[in-house]
User: Fold this.
Amino acid sequence: MGSLSRASKTLKSVRHFSLTHPFPSIFKGNPLYTRLNDHHFGLSHGFCSHPRQNSKENGIDLSNYPTERIRNFSIIAHVDHGKSTLADRLLELTGTIKRGHGQPQYLDKLQVERERGITVKAQTATMFHKHNFRGTDISDVQDQPSFLLNLIDTPGHVDFSYEVSRSLAACQGALLVVDAAQGVQAQTVANFYLAFESNLTIIPVINKIDQPTADPDLVKAQLKSMFDLDPSDALLTSAKTGQGLDQVLPAVIERIPPPPGKSGSPLRMLLLDSYYDEYKGVICHVAVVDGMLRKGDKISSAATGQAYEVLDVGIMHPELTPTGVLHSGQVGYVVSGMRSTKEARVGDTLSHSRSVVEPLPGFKPAKHMVFSGVYPADGSDFEALNHAIERLTCNDASVSVAKESSTALGLGFRCGFLGLLHMDVFHQRLEQEYGAHVISTVPTVPYIFEYSDESKVLVQNPAALPSNPTKRISACWEPTVMATIIIPSEYVGPVITLCSERRGQQLEYSFIDSQRVFMKYRLPLREIVVDFYNELKSITSGYASFDYEDAEYQQSDLVKLDVLLNGQPVDAMATIVHNLKAQRVGRELVDKLKKFIDRQMFEITIQAAIGSKIIARETISAMRKNVLAKCYGGDITRKKKLLEKQKEGKKRMKRVGSVDIPQEAFHELLKVS
Amino acid sequence: MLKSTFTPVFSLFPAKPRTPKLFYYSNITNTFKHNPPSVRRNASSNTILTTSTTPLSQLTPTSAYIHLPFCRKRCHYCDFPIVALGSSSNQPDDDPRILNYVQLLCREINATKVESKTNPPLQTVFFGGGTPSLVPPKLVSSVLEVLRLKFGLSSNAEISMEMDPGTFDAKKMKELIGLGVNRVSLGVQAFQEELLKACGRAHGLEEVYEAIEIVGSCGVENWSMDLISSLPNQTSEMWEESLRLTVEAEPTHVSVYDLQVEQGTKFGILYTPGEFPLPSETQSAEFYRMASNTLSDASYNHYEISSYCKSGFECKHNLTYWRNKPFYGFGLGSASYVGGLRFSRPRKIKEYTGYVQNLENGVADCCGNDSVEPKDVAMDVVMLSLRTSRGLDLKSFKEAYGGSLVFSLFKVYKPYVESGHVVCLDEHRRVVPADELSTALLDVDRIEKSLAYIRLSDPDGFLLSNELIALAFGAIAP
Ligand SMILES: Nc1nc2c(ncn2[C@@H]2O[C@H](COP(=O)(O)OP(=O)(O)OP(=O)(O)O)[C@@H](O)[C@H]2O)c(=O)[nH]1
Ligand SMILES: [Mg+2]
Assistant:
């Protein structure tokens, strides 16, 4: 234990590292991952002699696993570097799942994850593994000590880095997976720092070494130069062929320290995540930090003071497996009769009702980068959408939701998201998991406007900003991000051009190795929200990687851009843009609408305006003819079907004044940057 | 050959006594002479008034549509259930396909259930196709005979037949008149040789003039000139010419169909609506306006979206459609509306044969017993009546479907009354100005007092009828 606290103290001192200093010289000679190598050897022996208590549910007796026999680790990496596939292999290796049974990326359970081939939600799985420390001489596998390993597979995409930081809070170590061909990428950097700042032991895993273009030595060099990770500590694996995988769990057990919890102290557990199950109610994922939890215990939330009885407790193995108990250092689930996940606050501390404990630090709240309106596609479905959103936010607590209304779209919600992919995934889950069809308004970032009387407003919905304000606006601020871009050096020119078009300011420029450039930019969040990454990928033939974290607000020349149909502003289409871009964006919006609004019985004028100044205008001439002359032989059924289809089409439209706007028009506007 | 195959048709119903009015040729001519058009029109609107209290659809049909699917070849725009005889069949009189079909058709008519013996006789019969004029008059006669025996046939019934130029001569025309055919719908389609060719018509311009001459010389007083607008490569000049020649031919009725490019037709493969060589949407709207103006100037009433007539010469048969009244349908692919149920027969001969067999065995029933939602009927009524210049009769509509439906209809239509697409009329058929409508809309009772009809304007409202009717559907079934 002593060594543990010492190790974390050493790490505390380097905590202030920020992304603005990507190559901290302090790293030199700080072997983060080797500090606990052979410490538990002696301990493991004593517990082996304990008789197995198979009376416990499912034959799993967690009391056999004191903290010394527990390792909690996350798998972190850049997008697609193979985290989930590596997790599969480890689950198979430990017999947790059967080889070749389940689907690949077993832990990616959501339909969106399977369809998009990405992880959006961190998933925990408990495994058991027998291991012999180096130097001991137990030849019979039966006699080798068994370890309880909690693996957390995390998402790689920048939008979900919040999931990564929460996962890391339950871990003492992380496998930093790097694709042997792609090398260090932007999210590798970001996730490394998340783990590093959380004082975790980092085990570099160079994966996909089976690829013909794999260059593990180059990657080792990058890891050394960027993170000061010792090349000899890197594991070389292929999650595809299985090569090198036998090295992974021994490294986890030997290098990562056990959880620091005190089993004798009163119960304290960290609420990591929660979701709603139709049958069981709210299911909480928890990390027991101190003490022990049993089925039937009375527990209380530090945040709400609410008390609950533990109805079921167990581990994710990888499916929910009741164990009746969780010991300190263990990660598992708790069912406690919570009725809504609003009661289950991620980051909350749960303890026994009778005891008074110091709450755990918890998490800093998720930062919402983009906001957009979410409306039922069919106006009458508000209640259904309300219900769907309530349910989904139970399983995705990182969305903020507030009711709002729009003249064009009726009653709906203003939602805050971690990024555009997160928004997309949220919409897709609403549709797939809850059958709700939605219209989203153009995403916006939160702006701050200051009036001449020095009052300030935070604008999350452009429509809320008066188009012709009575008070003069004296200043506006927009959020910025600190962006990391890693590219092969031949693309430097076009990328710099792109960043300056996006009003970016270069802060750093350096070489990772002879071919790769690392750049840091400060960019207005608005500029990267929609299509920056796609653009970046297309000008670099897909080689660029990109990551960002939020930074401070900067003063900016912003205007509100209204869209008017037949002179009437459509609140759901208003946006806030930089003055210099207003003309182009206005033109694009008007053109898109012209393309997607059908001719109607009247002429339609489409305008984009700043205040009372029209900056773009188009007209859609009136429909000339829509008549089926023939109604032959009295056979009207076909014609009626046609007209009914036409009616249904109208029903799906949104009406502003006398203009029917198809839903696609709203969807298309999302693509205007 | 002909005789031997023909006999069985009659042998299907030899036991029934022949009705006394078997030879009523003189009656028919009398109808023409002594029933001035205005009287006939009044008679038909009276029927509407007297029956408006009982649901029209529940009455026994007094109209029958007969499908005679034969054509020499398929026109390039046609997707109807037809049987192309091919050019080899120069002697359709002997064609066994026609003969067999007519036998089957007569079996269908005979197998149809009739509620009671005291039903009113048929008032209209419409032979559509196909090209009914290809069918030998003897066979037409047998069909009429079966109809008369089965349902009764009013002595002054309107019996229409679609006839194509080049498929009949004066002799045939006279024979048909002798059988009781008293209204001809002449499929001229265009007055330009190149357009006739381009749409795959089996006749040329010469046959068109010949046919008009025959119809006139045989003394058919009530005939319709059928035209198609918006054909490929059709110019305004051509359309103007067609309209002018139509007016000069002095038909009592004109049908103007806007070309519909249907999937699976030759045109459907070749052309995209609104794109060259088809006229643009703007131009084809212009064609519609030209027809409306030219024919109105020549004192034709534009009484339905695609129909014009001299006063009193509405097609009575088609009026049953627009008034949502019941009608029988017999033959391949034909639609019927009996007992409140719409039914379409199989469009392929093989399936249709099976259907007739089942009908005879009592296994099939063309009117089933599914229930129809009142809303569905309300939509039918709106859709059909808004095709006519008479428009929707608000009083009977309200009685049948309730005042709130009328109210929501007005709410939806208000902007279109203001824009002139929709016209409100009082009980004297005077136009109610848009601003008066706003006050009328304040409460439901006022609507009833000041408004009696609602119709689509000509040509603006008619031109956008799909859009406007779809809006009405939205008001009826939101
Ligand atoms: N050739 C090769 N392909 C691999 C290996 N490991 C993973 N892959 C493939 O790489 C792709 C991405 O793998 P994932 O496991 O989904 O990657 P991930 O890091 O979990 O991705 P995110 O969760 O979206 O960040 C998949 O197509 C895998 O089959 C490997 O060792 N060799
Ligand atoms: Mg994954």
Notes: Chain B is about 45% helix and 15% strand. Chain B has two domains: 61-322, 374-476. Confidence is low (pLDDT under 50) at residues 1-53 of chain B.
